[in-house]
From TrEMBL:
SUPFAM superfamilies (alphabetical): NagB/RpiA/CoA transferase-like
Leader sequence segment: none
Ranges of residues in domain LUD: 123-225
Listed name of the protein: Lactate utilization protein
Gene3D superfamilies associated with the record: NagB/RpiA/CoA transferase-like
Species this protein is from: Roseococcus pinisoli
Amino acid sequence: MSKDAILGAIRRGLRRGELPEDQKAMLRARMAAPPRHLIPARSRVSRPEQIALFVANIEKEFGSVERIPDLDAVPAAIADYLAAQNQPPRFAMAPNPELQGIDWSSRPMLQFEARKGLPDDVVSLQSAFAAIAETGTLMLPSAPIRPTTLNLLPDVAMVLVRASRIVGAYEEAWDLLRAEQKDALTGGFMPRNVMLVTGPSRSADIEQTLELGAHGPRMLHVLLLDDDPAALAGS
């Protein structure tokens, strides 16, 4: 069903036609300058404190973080992590130019394929679009270079996050998405899917017992790339 057909069905259900021009103008203005909601004070801190808050919140939610100085450190960090967790040195990797451009030759035992996730994948490597310090959340909008299946199917999810892409509050992450995901055809910005991941998947629905890996990865490991000098000051 086309977009016009869907909108037409909604209008018929609401028993109304096109919006008056003044209401259209009001909606366009709201979309151009979204109103700010209450932003928690805990995220209004210095850059080093924001990064520390992000790390603390990831760990509080049963994830783990390793800070690395540059992309050259990624292979060793992944090899060491997988060995420590008794995981195979194989993973599905997002077909992201940044990840594909890494020199993996320093760890020849690592095996990977750049593709979407499959049901039998055990480990995945993804790259976050942004991250949110106030809750330790990763923003993962779907894209050809960021397959959503890599966030859901593997048992162990590894995610590369640049410190320069960590913001204090959710509103700032959405600002980045609006600014950088412009569609030349429609002028819009929203991808098909935006996953907000806070720690590994878990549920306490059954007898109030916490179960990790209930709806997705059982383990979440963040590789935090320290590429923001302001975030390192005084740390």
